[in-house]
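Appendix B. Chain record.
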Amino acid sequence: MQPAGYQRLPAKTDVRVGFVKKLVEPQSIFAVAISILFALPLILILVTRAEYLVFANESLAYRYFACARIWEGDRRTVWLPQGQLLTVLQHCIWWLLNLLGIHDLRMRLQSFGLATTVLTTLLGIAL
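Structure tokens predicted for this chain:
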């Protein structure tokens, strides 16, 4: 006999079953499909082993050398009109490239471009 005001708790259910049901809901399938579409440029770059210097030379050089100028101390004439969050991410990438000791310019440009694409893709999927 239960005291007045208390309710009997339902039988314990398996949490994993609820998780699997959540994965096959239409919203989850739609979210996964959109995430894959958002990551398509990154997937194509990785599959084809594309080189950033070939297909994005102007924009890559513009962003890369803007970071380089700021890191070398030229703060007066460097002005990037767009992408403050992207600029912060790219400064972190620049710092990481220096930390890893990558000195070959071609390798630095490729790593800089690939890391930028990976970070922006992950950020886009997370949002």
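Further analysis of this model is presented in Appendix C.
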